[in-house]
Design a protein that fits this description.
The chain is α+β, with helices and mostly antiparallel strands. It is built from four helices and 16 strands. Helix 2 links the parallel strand 4 and strand 5.
Length: 287
C-alpha cells in the first residue's frame, strides 16, 4: 500500500490538503487525487482544495493549486497563505520575512509572523465597475475584478435581502458564477455587506471549482476589498469578514490617478490536523 503524509490547513476558514510533491508517486493523476483527497468521506472531513509544494531552483518553493473539482491554473489567496505556513514549517525557506514562491507562472512574495501570513499580489489585470447585468431576471449593478482568479461582486443593496446572512446562496451563487459575461470558465461570486464601521465589509463567496460557498476566499477578499475601496474612497487596509468570521485585511497603495498597486492579503493560517493518504483508495495512474 502506497501512502504519503498530508496536513490539513485553514486559511481564515478556507481549508486545504497540503502535501509535498516529492512524496507523491510519479504518474499520480493529480486532478483525480484532488477530487478524492478533498472528499468529505475522508477522516479529515473534506477540504476546498489540494496544494502540492515542490522545491524550486529560482524561488523558495513552487505551489501547485487544485480546486476541489480538480481544476487548476488559478491562484488561491488563502491557499497561498497556507502554503507559506507549510513551507516555513517544512524547511523550504529559512526566512519568515522575505519568502518568494511561484504559482501558475506568477511570482508572489510573502512574510509570516506567528500564524499570520501576508502575501503580496501583482497589480490586478482587469477591474470593471458598474456593470449592468441581468441576474435572476432583473438588471443589477455588478463589479468585476481579476486578481489571479476572476470575480463578480454584488453589494447587498441589489440582492433583495435585509441581511447578507439571509441570501439564498444555492440560488444566487450559481447564477452569478455562471453568468454569460464570464463564460465559459465562469467566475467566483461575491456578495458584500458594508459594515457600519468605516473601511469594512462582510463577505460571502460561492467558489467555482468548489461549486459551493466556502468559509472564506482569499482572492475574493482582495477583489471585494479593492472594489469597495474604489467605490467608497477607502484607504488601506480594508477589513474583510468572511463567512468563517476570521478577519482578513486587504492592503494596497493608490497612485495619483487612483489606480491600485502593491496588493496584499493578510490573515491567519493554521494546521488543523495531519495524517496519511493511502493510494489504495485514491486514483493512481502509472506513467
Amino acid at each position: 500500500m502506497i501512502s504519503f503524509s498530508y496536513q490539513k490547513l485553514s486559511g481564515a476558514g478556507n481549508t486545504f490538503i497540503v502535501v509535498e510533491g516529492k512524496d507523491i508517486p510519479q504518474g499520480t493523476d493529480l486532478p483525480s487525487l484532488t477530487q478524492a483527497s478533498c472528499s468529505n468521506e475522508h477522516e479529515h472531513g473534506g477540504a476546498d482544495g489540494l496544494i502540492v509544494l515542490d522545491h524550486s531552483d529560482t524561488h523558495d518553493f513552487a505551489m501547485h493549486y487544485y480546486n476541489r473539482d480538480g481544476s487548476t491554473g488559478m491562484m488561491c489567496g488563502n491557499g497561498g497563505r497556507c502554503a507559506v505556513q507549510f513551507a516555513v514549517a517544512h524547511g523550504y525557506t529559512s526566512s519568515t520575512t522575505s519568502i518568494m514562491f511561484i504559482n501558475a507562472g506568477v511570482v508572489y512574495s510573502a512574510e509570516m509572523t506567528g500564524k499570520n501570513v501576508r502575501i503580496s499580489f501583482p497589480d490586478p489585470p482587469k477591474i470593471q465597475l458598474h456593470l449592468n447585468l441581468n441576474i435572476l431576471g432583473t438588471q443589477r449593478i455588478c463589479h468585476y475584478a481579476d486578481v489571479g482568479t476572476p470575480h463578480l461582486i454584488l453589494f447587498k443593496d441589489v440582492l433583495e435581502v435585509d441581511a447578507l446572512a439571509d441570501l439564498e446562496m444555492k440560488r444566487w451563487g450559481p447564477a452569478v458564477r455562471n453568468h454569460p459575461l464570464v463564460r465559459p470558465e465562469g467566475a467566483n461570486a461575491n456578495f458584500i455587506e458594508v459594515l457600519p464601521e468605516e473601511k469594512g465589509i462582510r463577505l460571502r463567496t460561492f467558489e467555482r471549482g468548489v461549486e459551493g460557498e466556502t468559509g472564506a476566499c482569499g482572492t475574493g477578499a482582495i477583489a471585494s476589498g479593492i472594489a469597495s475601496s474604489l467605490l467608497h474612497g477607502w484607504s488601506s487596509p480594508v477589513n474583510v469578514i468572511p463567512t468563517s468570521g476570521s478577519l482578513l485585511q486587504v492592503h494596497f497603495d493608490r497612485d495619483e490617478e487612483g489606480a491600485l498597486h502593491n496588493l496584499g492579503l493578510e490573515g491567519g493560517a493554521e494546521v488543523l490536523m495531519e495524517g496519511k493518504l493511502s493510494l489504495a483508495t485514491l486514483p493512481f495512474v502509472q506513467s
